[in-house]
Design goal:
Blueprint: H1 2-14, E1 18-26, E2 38-44, E3 49-54, E4 68-75, E5 82-89, E6 99-106, E7 113-116, E8 122-123, E9 134-135, E10 137-141
Parallel strand pairs: 8-9
Antiparallel strand pairs: 1-4, 1-6, 2-3, 2-5, 5-10, 6-7
């Protein structure tokens, strides 16, 4: 009987999922849009990390000039207070993307945080763009003072 109760509790704990929402806006300038493959990961202040994988809404044309795209992910990992968000280009992303701003929130951190591409850096796996004009990945972190 005790084993059955323990097994039931274990299954219940494993079935808990947390929802995360990532919003990205593409700059409204010529050639800012992309058909490339971009991926997201996030870190929590509790030390946990989630690799959300590909940012893709299958029935939509993501990363279009001047548009904001929303991506929802579920995970059994609770990041608690969100600390950092990383966007990276996949190997099939030789088409550069000029992201404008980004935000992430979750059920356990409903305010989340946001960031701006103030440098105007392009994201692409095309190494000829990396350096002054482009990045393979970009990271935004919530300032620790925002937690006070």
């Amino acid at each position: 009987m005790k084993l059955l109760i323990l097994a039931s509790l274990l299954i219940a704990v494993q079935s808990i999922t947390y929802q995360y929402t990532i919003r990205v806006s593409t700059k409204d300038v010529e050639h800012a849009n992309s058909g490339g493959w971009f991926y997201a990961s996030a870190l929590g202040y509790n030390g946990n990390m989630i690799d959300f994988g590909l940012l893709d809404n299958p029935d939509l044309d993501d990363f279009e000039r001047g548009n904001t795209d929303m991506f929802k992910f579920c995970s059994n990992v609770d990041l608690g207070t969100l600390g950092c968000l990383i966007i990276r280009a996949g190997t099939q992303s030789d088409d550069a993307w000029l992201m404008d701003h980004i935000s992430i929130k979750s059920e356990t951190d409903p305010d989340g945080f946001s960031g701006v591409n103030s440098e105007g850096a392009w994201i692409s796996s095309d190494t000829s763009l990396n350096g002054d004009q482009g990045e393979l990945a970009m990271m935004w972190c919530r300032p620790p003072t925002a937690l006070l």
